[in-house]
Amino acid sequence: MQIVIINGSPRSKGATGKILSMIKENLMSIDKSIQICFYNLGEIKPRFCDGCLSCYRTGFCHIKDDGIEEISKEIENSDGVIFGSPTYGSNISGQFKVFVDRAHLLVEQLLKNKPCITLTTYENAEGGAALSILKKLVRVSGGYVSGSLKIKVEHNKNPIDSTATHKLKIITERFYKDLQRAKKHRLGGGILNYIAFHFVLKPHAIRNKARYNRTLDRQRINSIKYLVDQ
Ligand SMILES: Cc1cc2nc3c(=O)[nH]c(=O)nc-3n(C[C@H](O)[C@H](O)[C@H](O)COP(=O)(O)O)c2cc1C
User: Fold this and answer.
1) Is 59 exposed, middle or buried (0-12, 13-18, 19+ CB in 10 A)?
2) 154: CA distance to ligand 1 center in Å?
3) What would the pLDDT profile of 4-35 be if each residue is shown by its tens digit?
4) Residue 186 has pLDDT above 60, yes or no
5) Beta bridge partners of 81
6) Backbone angles phi, psi at 145, to 5 degrees
């Protein structure tokens, strides 16, 4: 079983990183055989998407020196993904947004039927706004939100208290159960994904077949019924 964890904070050892590390430890204590790939975007420093759209045609990004393509592949091959970002200006961090632009999660439906955890930390207000953005990303990319958490924390304070520890334990256990269930019968990604995929993404790709060539292939590989064959 393989899990990918993405920390969208520029500070690897900040509040978000500490919480994600605790989820990682919880998972390891449930099942030592789980392989966990933990990525700190603050260290990776993903380069901006330059908007060339060549990934739609070719299936990969031409920017190769920051490892985002490899992370994207690992996400595709994983059984579940955990996304964490600090709240920045009622939103996800810039690092996380650049990652989303580069990782083609939505257009290739890379989270199809995967359980995901979404997490944000915030200091004062609007943690819910950042969390909504993460949850929507998961749903429109084909995944489902197994657990979701916003944790209020003062700057540079340790976010792990007894309440957080308890919540993280519950979230991790549910995530692990979902990972096992998903292995037997993968459920659909929900109504939002259905609408986003069948009424928005699919018709648009079909209308622009030449430009979306590789995207259509990738979606077929991800076992999604696609009109390109019809
Ligand atoms: C540029 C910037 C914008 C922020 N915007 C918000 C915000 O809108 N709401 C809030 O409650 N906290 C905000 N914060 C505080 C962070 O969300 C909070 O300190 C977070 O826990 C930091 O996570 P980290 O330690 O993992 O980097 C902001 C911090 C920064 C640096």
Assistant:
1) middle
2) 9
3) 999 999 999 999 999 999 999 999 999 999 99
4) no
5) 4, 116
6) -85, 110
User: What is the distance in A from the centroid of ligand 1 to the CA of 197?
Assistant: 32
pLDDT tens-place string over residues 98-112: 999 999 998 888 998
* Nearest CA owner, ligand 1 atom 2: 88
48 secondary structure, DSSP code: P
> Which of 120, 99, 119, 122 lies closest to 45 in space, CA to CA?
99
Residues 6+ apart with CB under 8 A from 53: 211
CATH number of 2-229: 3.40.50.360
Question: What is the pLDDT averaged over residues 211-227?
Answer: 63
Choosing from 120, 123, 126, 158 the residue with most ligand 1 atoms within 8 A of its CB, the one to mutate for a pocket test is: 123
Please, what is the average pLDDT of the chain?
90
- Closest CA to ligand 1's atom 29: 88
**Are 31 and 176 spatial neighbours (Cβ–Cβ below 8 Å)?**
yes
Q: Is residue 88 lining ligand 1, measured as CB closer than 6 Å?
A: yes
Residue 220 has pLDDT above 70, yes or no: no
Q: Is the CB of 121 under 6 A from ligand 1?
A: yes
Domain ranges across the chain: 2-229
Unique residue bearing structure tokens 């990183």: 17
The CA distance from 52 to 64, in Å, is 14
In the predicted structure, residue 147 carries a pLDDT above the cut 90: yes
Ligand 1 pocket member 174 (CB < 6 A): no
